[in-house]
Write a structure and sequence with these properties.
79 residues, elongated, 1 helix, mainly alpha
Length: 79
Amino acid sequence: MEATAPFLFIAFFITVGAFILGGVLVWNLKDLFDAWYNNAGYAKHVLHPEMFDENGQMYRDDLLRVSFMNDNEETDDED
């Protein structure tokens, strides 16, 4: 198929239009993401305040963690 002038003309403007539309969408969605991200940071402190000290830092070593073992894993308790 031979590329003709009308095809190249239409393809060019569709490509440029897609880049412009994508730029406008990303520009507007960035504001929504920033608002969501700031709210998510606030919600983290509100939902689980017991996980943070008085300075707002998360307790990393003092938290209790439970891990489950698979039934297939062998334990050293059989000695």
